[in-house]
Hints:
This protein has helices at residues 6-18, 30-49, 70-85, 98-110, 123-135, 163-176, 192-205, 213-216, 227-240, 252-265, 278-286, 297-314, and strands at residues 57-63, 88-94, 115-119, 140-143, 158-160, 182-186, 217-221, 246-249, 270-274, 292-294, 324-325, 329-331. By secondary structure, the chain is of the alpha/beta class. It has two domains: 3-161 and 296-327, Rossmann fold; 163-294, 3-Layer(aba) Sandwich (Rossmann fold), CATH 3.40.50.
Amino acid sequence: MTRRGWPAVVAVATLLVTGCTAGSRPATNDDAVLETLSVTESASATGSGDADPDRRLRFAIVTHGSTGDPFWDVVKTGAEDAGQANNAEIDYQSDPEPGSQAQLIASVTSRQVDGLIVSMADPDALRETIAAAVAAGIPVITINAGEDRSAEFGALTHIGQSEASAGEGAGDRLRDAGVTKLLCVIHEAGNVGQEQRCQGAARGLGVDGSAEPGDIMRTLRVNGSNLAETETTIATELQADPQIDGVLTLNAAVAVTAATAIGTSGSGAALATFELSDDVVQDIGEGDILFAVDQQQYLQGYLPVVFLALFARSGNVVGGGEGVPTGPRYITQENLDSVHIGTR
């Protein structure tokens, strides 16, 4: 399916997720969730009650992505496609440094946009600026990272995947493939979602009270912006510990780098990753990567724009206080033909 064919599909998906109770956000106290929704909706009610339903809306998106990151380029494309379909202007900005991201949020809040979409890799750094946006009557939806804190911060809903559950699913699959000791590669310091992925993978592999976590999984921290250095670091780790028979990376670029490191180190470790790219799809097809965990990030750009447009024009809130999951979907050789990189 082409990217331009998504609007009709997502319109149907929107109706389906409205009735879905299995969100990606962990359970919270019902009264707290209802209070959060009540506060957020009442603060934004004037925007949906008095506005011309046909007017062009203005939504801001502020993420922690780096400029030119292929993952976030797809998120941006999804948002722009949804903006075109819903008569909304999209202002996409990003900065991987939490303090700078907070400043971007403060800037768009001062412009009184009709809605704010935020990824929260470092929730505490964004708390004050998101609270200011909510207090100003701007409806907020969180995406991708920060699901555990989304309701606490007053967001209408969270759109993404449960990183812990996705990691556990990856660990399950690696265990079934025969992996007994895993190297989980974290490429972005301070990103709680990446920590949750590795912790989930450890559980999937079978880390419990009967085993030391280090006997089954080790965490390796690298600089994801320096892939040459990352390759050397991974290769060195594999040579230092021959018992490592599995590697899990957390984005597509590091996955391709890890595949090279496995080869140069002489390791026979199996490789799996989070996220997709053309290179990852090729490596899965050739058997160099077992699988990829796909969180369908196009939807993380598309759906919040649709949801905010519904809220602005009719007061509808999707999710019922729960998150709306976009993943995980596990991509293997068996279902590889269904993947369209333009929407990944």
